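Hi everyone,

Forwarding the result from last night's run.
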Amino acid sequence: MTRSKSCRPLNVPNNENGSLLLVLSFVVFLTFIGFSLAFSTISHTRITGERAFKLQVTENLKEDVIYYLHNFRRRIFEEKLNRCANPVVEYFNSVQFPQQEINGRSVVSPSFNYVETLYVHYKKFRVTGQFGTRTIATGAAACYLVRADVSLELLSGGVPVSEVPFFLEKQVNGPQFLEDNRITSAGNLAMTVGEEETDLDFAGCIADALEIPRRILLQWREIRLKLGMPQSDQPLPEGIYCFQGSGVVPAVFIQGDLEQMIFFVVPDTDGQVQGIRFTLAGGSYEIQYRPGAVDFQCTDQAVAQQSLFKETLIVNGRILSLVQQGDAAFTASARILLLVSGRTVIRSDLLRETNHIGLDTVKVTALTLVTGMEQLFGISYEDDPPGITVDTGVTGRVEATLITSGDLSVQSDQLEVRGSVYAKDYKSGGSLKVRREASGRAHGEYFKTVDYNYLRRFLLYAVEEVEGE
């Protein structure tokens, strides 16, 4: 008989407890993920909302400060700053421009600083303005801040008239006159229209050009003496005269009307030699010279070639036709002063040669044309009063500083002046655009304003958000 073995239970692990633990862990993990996602969503929504709110507030502040600056610019250009002896101190301050609330949501706080540069007869001020614009915070609301930076350029005193792109000394409605006559200024430089007091010293300019002491009354006797001619109070005979000094030709003097004056760059000289041809009823006369060098040639063989020409031309009469020959009228280094008692008619473009301009060449006008000194020699032009006429055809470009005590008459349909314009009257059927360039000849001592405050430029540099205070 076989004896059966006893049966023992197998040692099997308790899977129910493990499964429960796993399920609980998974539930806790899912709960954590859910809370994290919910918190992240809430935080993202809150941050997105705050960011959108901040962007909206910042945009509102920018709109407000630009609106303020628009009115600020209009006010300062319309203001008569001549009532201020020191406009920078008296005008640009917190009294004239206190804090101002804009649209019930922001406050603009202006502040100003300036740098002063002294010249012989006037001062130049560079005024910088900061316009902080903040929200009007209520309770614990955050304060946001936007700042605008601007720069102003102001000239004060005896300002040379050529510092102004377009200066019309005539009592008219300035903005309306400029619009009606289609006169614009490149570079947003302000133009001046009005009866501002000026000082035009033709006699002093001619006396200095001819090296005649200012204490001596400028008369024909003095001019004859400088030329070595017999003493007399009678005018010079019609013709062209070269004034001479020790190795210097201070000026060329033309007595009588010129039928034509031609400016040209002498060929085959690498743009270095300036030529000028004069045509009178009795014939023609020509000079050639290197600006700034001891090299002068002219039709009059009695004048030494080893002379420095000081580039001053004086015409006691009218110029019926002023033109250029070839592609350019002037060399890059020419600095010509042309003084004319009567009217001058420009009948072609007057351009400066540019093929040989070096990087160190200062960009100034090669020609400074001044007309209207008829009172100097007692000449009267009743039928054709002194002034400047530009008749270049449909379009034209004149690279020159134009100053006249008479009128500027533009007969071209479209004229661009690269230089500046000063006149006491203006006549035109076309448009005029002035791109200001400084005069190549220092003339501020002779043709300037009297105690004038001229706000020339307004520049907005930046409008940006800054940290709230």
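Residues 161-450 form one domain.

Cheers,
N.
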